[in-house]
Design a protein that fits this description.
The chain is α/β, with parallel strands linked by helices and 269 residues long. It has one domain (3-267): Metal-dependent hydrolases (TIM Barrel), CATH 3.20.20. The protein is built from twelve helices and eight strands. The chain has helices at residues 12-15, 21-26, 38-48, 68-76, 93-103, 116-119, 129-138, 160-170, 186-195, 213-220, 238-242, 252-267; strands at residues 3-7, 52-56, 82-86, 109-113, 142-145, 176-179, 199-202, 227-228. Strands 1-2-3-4-5-6-7-8 form an eight-stranded parallel sheet, sandwiched between helices. Helix 5 runs parallel beside helix 7 (129-138). It starts with a strand and ends with a helix.
Amino acid sequence: MIIDVWAQAPTARFAAAPWLQPLLKWTGREGDTSETTITQTVAAMDAAGVDITILSAWSSPTGDLISNTELLEQIDQAPNRLRGLATVDLTDPMGAVREIRRFVDGKRIVGVRLVPWLWDLPPNDRRYYPVYASCIEAGVPFCTQIGHTGPLKRSETGRMLPYLEDVMLDFPELVVVGGHVGFPWLDELHTMTIKFPNFHVDTSAYVLHRLPPTFVDWMKGVGKARVMFGTNWPMLSPKRCLAGIDTLTLSRDAREAFLSGNAKRVFKL
């Protein structure tokens, strides 16, 4: 079984965001501002043997790029293949709490995702804290991005120490999934994994044969029970990401945990 824990089906307004354009260029999709359909998404899953994809809604300081309502509509087009991560507006703390209580059911919507660089607010900012409490209340993970930022935004918000460390000290019950590997702060990644049993990482935005060697070593050791497969579809396709999996030389147990086992446990799939 294969589960992709980081993907989105961009609306036209998401695809047209100016900060996204450098990323589209790097992934060979320069100038593409079209929406991504669920038909395209499922076809890409089928081409790579992906069983379940977790799509994300996206909010931003200028409004929703993929709203929670739109996310549910996307999931309803392939309910056996798709799950979702809700989004919230950080500038409206009580609205964020109500949004999580309304949409996050643990069945179709199985978590919450916010990317700090989009808000230019590190995750220990007070505006996130009602979101963390609501995730614990709902029994779902908080998903975010760690490491440098590909789009034209500051990377500092992706540092794990001290920003994410502060959060996990303040909320020891919170389950966190950090996307995009965490490069270049891989020493911080190792420290966070050892220190916090609720901290997890996914490999989204990387084709597997390009993962940093230090990260691959981490996957085989302390990260074995913490790492999950992700793509960042449609910027990268599942087939392209998975093509290099044999180069990782994972044990059978580690491979199963990476491709689906850890995700099933953390997202309660």
